[in-house]
Amino acid sequence: MSATHDAKTPARRGSTPGPAPETMITARGLVRTYGSGRTAVHALRGVDLDVPRGELVAVRGRSGAGKTTLLNLVGGLDRPDSGSVLLDGAELTGMGEKQLSALWRERIGFVFQSFGLVPVLTAAENVGVPLRLRRTPWREREERVRLLLEMVGLGDHAEQRPGELSGGQQQRVAVARALANRPALLIADEPTGQLDAETRAAVTELLRAVVAGEGVTVLVATHDDGLIAAADRVLELRDGLITEEGPR
C-alpha cells in the first residue's frame, strides 16, 4: 500500500484542517536487490512513498527491513534497480554525479548513527565544513555556525573537539552541520541509536525544533519509540513495501 498523503488524511498534530501540504519527496516503484540467485536480498520490492513538506516522518521496521536502503535512494546516495525519486519535483534517479553533488551541498542534509564528525576539528569547524565547501564568506559562515550551535544547545562548546563531547553532544553537532546550508530535506538514519534515554529525548526534541524553526522536512529511520511518537506520521517498512500507520 502506498504511503500517499491526500486531502482526506487527517491534519497533522497541532494543525487546522486544510488542503494537503505540498509534497517534498515522491518515490514510485522503488526496487533494490543486492546479490543474485539464491543469495539475493530483495531490500525494496516496489516502494511508493510521499513525504509532505515540513513534516517529521519516521520509517520503522525490523533490522534488515531496508530502511537504510530506502533513505539512501531518497537521498541519492544509491540508485534503484528500477523506479524513480523526485525531490521537490526534480528527479534524482537520472542525475549525474555533478548534479547530485550540488544537490547534497544545497538541498539535502544527512545525519548518521555514527555521527561522522572530523576528530581533529572543533565543533564549530565541523559545522562550518559545508559552508567552506560552498565558499561562503567568512563573516556569514561564522554567524551561521554560531546560530546553529546555539540552536542545538552547544554555544558554549564551539571550541571543543568530538573526543571532548558526549555522544549526544556529538550528534547535536552532526545535526547542526547537516543544517549548515539550509537544506530543504534532512535525512537521518537511526540518529538516536547509540544514545541513552535522556539524550535520545533531547535529540528528538531537536529534530522537532528543526522542523518548526528551520522549515526542514525530516525523514528518519528509527527503532526509537520516543522518536516514533514525536513524528507527524509513521511509515512501516515490511516485506519490501511501505504501509502508512497515519499521522500521530
From TrEMBL:
InterPro entries: AAA+_ATPase (IPR003593), ABC_transporter-like_ATP-bd (IPR003439), ABC_transporter-like_CS (IPR017871), ABC_transpr_LolD-like (IPR015854), MacB-like_ATP-bd (IPR017911), P-loop_NTPase (IPR027417)
Pfam families: ABC_tran
GO molecular function terms noted in the UniProt entry: ATP binding
SMART domains: AAA
Annotated spans, Disordered: 1-23
ABC transporter domain residues: 25-248
Protein name, per record: ABC transporter ATP-binding protein
